[in-house]
Write a structure and sequence with these properties.
alpha+beta; two-stranded antiparallel ribbon; Trna Endonuclease, Chain: A, domain 1
């Protein structure tokens, strides 16, 4: 079983490699205590990226992403729009990377539905679909 730290490093590396595959310059903060994990540059604009591990639940066919960090003293750190422009999440169980604009989700958690399996038609408009936040789709909005 991976430690929280090694999981975080794996997620950051996977996300950074996705940006690099698209020719986007990636900067890493020197300190681990910054509010963002990566800084990316696109056409002279800079975006602060907070990387998060996405946990896939096969029974619900959903990726759960916690949008906060738990500090060593047990308190939760919630991010602000001044600190983060995008959350980037890697769900290792399904090998998918998601790019989630800060202003489209809350500050606690997000559920990304992977498929239409067992979804009632009346609920389809209320769901955060994984495909809407697919890295390959969202990266072109930067």
């Amino acid at each position: 079983m991976r430690s929280t730290s090694s999981t975080g490093q794996m997620v950051e590396l996977r996300v950074a490699s996705e940006f690099a595959k698209h020719g986007i310059t990636v900067y890493n903060p020197v300190s681990e205590h910054d509010s963002h994990d990566l800084l990316v540059e696109v056409a002279g604009e800079y975006y602060k990226i907070q990387c998060k591990h996405g946990r896939y639940d096969e029974d619900e066919d959903v990726v759960f992403v916690s949008l906060r960090s738990t500090r060593r003293n047990g308190t939760d750190k919630h991010y602000t729009a001044d600190e983060v422009d995008y959350y980037a999440s890697y769900a290792s169980e399904i090998d998918r990377v998601f790019l989630i604009p800060f202003d489209e989700v809350g500050t606690d958690k997000v559920r990304l539905r992977v498929s239409y399996k067992d979804v009632r038609p009346c609920n389809k408009d209320k769901i955060n679909w994984a495909d809407q936040y697919s890295f390959d789709t969202r990266v072109f909005e930067l």
